[in-house]
Amino acid sequence: MVFMLLTTVFFERDTKGLPLKENPRALLGMLKVLVRRARDDLEALFAFPLRVALLLTQDIFRFFLTFSKKEKKTLNAMSDKLKILLVGPEKAGKTTVANFLANEKGKLADGKDMPYRSTCGARILEFEAGGNGRGRDSKMQTSVELWDVSGSQRFESSWPAIMHEADAVVLLYNPDNRPHVNEIGLWFEWFVQKAGLSSSKCLVFAHRMKTAVGCEIQLRVPHILSKAQVVESDWDSDDSIRMAFSRFVANI
Ligand SMILES: Nc1nc2c(ncn2[C@@H]2O[C@H](COP(=O)(O)OP(=O)(O)OP(=O)(O)O)[C@@H](O)[C@H]2O)c(=O)[nH]1
Ligand SMILES: [Mg+2]
Fold it and tell me: Nearest to residue 8, comparing CAs of 23, 29, 30?
């Protein structure tokens, strides 16, 4: 380029035959032509790689945009709370189990010395569950709204409101208590079947108040619950209750 410029300035002549260095206007015009030609050459040289680079940048940008949209969707899904109802006959241990599940460091037996107080209507406990069931560090934890519903039929009129938009149901009854065994099917009909939930959205705790030492009483599970997942529990079942609940939440 420099060589071309020098040659032009010193050796080219204008239309009248004068050297260009003696005619500034003609020299300027010639330089302009040279610069334009050089620019065209450079454009031709870099146009293709530039276009490829531009397309690649666009693709990379588009990829990150879609990726972040997907991420956003997953995060939204993860941030959605699950509404889970805990229902069953009166004095079965629902409140005790609900408090245990909500308090990740607590023990089920912490409720041993608590005086029985019938739940009034329903209470809502919010906590994280799911993953591998071993506390907040575990991956894929889900926010849970656990509705601890009174077993008293005095509150029956509020059941439709309580059931509204429930994602799943946990039934809890004492399998050694005959009235409980008779009643639990009705709770299943009301809160699972009538709500249009499938049996997979129902977890049952057959929660024993005491087990006779050395003599295992056979578990009575009413036929209607045969398709639901039934977990036996008692005061000493901390791990199995927490694990069963976490697995249930993870699969809702
Ligand atoms: N021995 C024994 N007692 C328990 C167990 N779980 C709960 N209890 C006791 O049983 C009583 C009733 O427990 P709650 O958890 O309040 O029962 P609930 O099902 O919430 O009762 P409602 O709110 O009336 O429907 C309390 O005095 C608890 O201490 C258990 O596993 N073993
Ligand atoms: Mg209660």
Answer: 30
